[in-house]
Design goal:
The protein has one domain: Aldolase class I (TIM Barrel), CATH 3.20.20. The protein is built from ten helices and eight strands. The structure holds 2-phosphoglycolic acid.
Length: about 250
């Protein structure tokens, strides 16, 4: 694993304001003892302000689960990067498979959201991944390359500000199912992404790539040892302190 390990909790549509405040107090405390792990959580929009106020003095970073590309305007149900920053968020999940699957997000939207985040100092955590059908048809690499093509073109152009970005490889069939690819498959896929990056940019290193999909204290020990894995994007196991703190302990090594 790299020097810095990212552990990002995606709470999805879980934990309202009261539950967030209580849980964040524990996580804020946990974060202060971490030496090599960047602990981040993405609560629902309504809980962001309470999360950031609790996390203020700690190393716990708060992010949003999505962000729009416009600064403001008639986009019912969306929030802008400026609003997220004002609420104290430091990063944004973009292109999560649930957004793609249930809300019709496509690669073009993902790119627009990513550009807006980078232009306003929100760290984008861009999610990619194949469905089971695509995997079984041997199309994983092609699917990932299609999802990444526009993004990598942008990142290696003069237009892109030189700011960090994180990728999260999350096989759709592994999310919330308890199924996890083999360590060899995770390694190969992450290597494939790095190879693809090199075909765009031979000088800059590939952005860090997290693994996501049914990460738990039972499997993270092995997954986190993979050189090409820079950390994890965690759904279910990030909702419970006992599990998430255990993951942080594993990340610390
Ligand atoms: P999971 O979700 O850990 O519950 O599989 C991961 C994610 O959706 O980011």
């Amino acid at each position: 694993m790299n020097n810095k390990t990212f552990l990002i909790g995606n709470w999805k549509m879980n934990h309202g304001i009261a539950a967030t405040t209580e849980y964040c107090q524990q996580l804020a405390e946990l974060s202060t003892g971490l030496k090599k792990t960047e602990l981040k959580i993405a609560p629902p929009f309504l809980s962001i302000a309470s999360a950031t106020s609790v996390a203020k003095e700690s190393q716990l970073q708060i992010g949003v689960q999505n962000v729009h590309w416009a600064e403001n305007g008639a986009y019912t149900g969306e929030i802008s990067c400026g609003m997220a920053l004002e609420a104290g968020a430091t990063f944004a999940l973009i292109g999560h498979s649930e957004r793609r699957q249930y809300f019709g997000e496509n690669d073009h939207d993902v790119l627009r959201r990513t550009r807006a985040a980078m232009e306003t100092d929100l760290l984008p955590v861009v999610c990619i991944g194949e469905t089971l059908e695509e995997r079984e048809a041997g199309k994983t690499d092609t699917v990932l390359r299609t999802q990444l093509e526009g993004l990598f073109t942008y990142l290696s152009s003069d237009e892109a500000p030189s700011k960090p970005l994180i990728l999260a490889y999350e096989p759709v069939w592994a999310i919330g199912t308890g199924k996890v690819p083999t360590l060899e498959d995770i390694t190969d896929t992450h290597r494939g992404i790095i190879e693809y990056w090199k075909s765009f940019n031979s000088t800059a290193p590939c952005p860090p790539i997290l693994y996501g999909g049914s990460v738990s204290p039972d499997n993270f020990g092995e997954i986190s040892k993979i050189e090409e894995v820079a950390g994890a994007l965690v759904g279910g196991a990030s909702l419970v302190y006992e599990k998430f703190s255990k993951l942080a302990e594993i990340a610390e090594g």
